[in-house]
Amino acid sequence: KNLEILKAAFIEAAKENREIKLEIFTDLPYQELIKKLQNCYGVILPSISEVSPNFILDAIATNKPFILTKETGFYEKMKDIGIFVDPHNREDIKNKILFLADDRNWQEYKKRVADFKFVHSWQEITDEFINIYQKLCQVVEI
Prior knowledge:
Elements: H1 3-16, H2 30-39, E1 43-45, H3 54-61, E2 66-69, H4 75-78, E3 83-85, H5 90-101, H6 103-115, H7 122-141
Helix pairs in contact: 1-5
Keywords: Transferase
Domain Glycosyl transferase family: 13-108
GO molecular function, one term: glycosyltransferase activity
């Protein structure tokens, strides 16, 4: 999950803002995870790749601003409510941590998350499958 780059970026960010803290947790029962999310300031998931970021969906459900890898399958759905990072760029991650640590930015993104309505209808899913199928058919025809 790109923890080494995250830790290094956070150490650098903490030199500029000593009030920030990083807590990394794994393998928690779901209810404990939700409690942690409800009590945290924000969430960061700078994975090298995160096709379906359930952790971020849980953060959204608890109205937490988030920083997420730009290498996610949900970028188009979430681009207006989240902060996105290049998972290979420690400086980018550091800067986005500091950005979210600013109270004005945090308030803005908290509002965006609270106002967000995630809708992925069966019609949209069907359209996505048809689009993929059509692209595959074009590749085969060449």
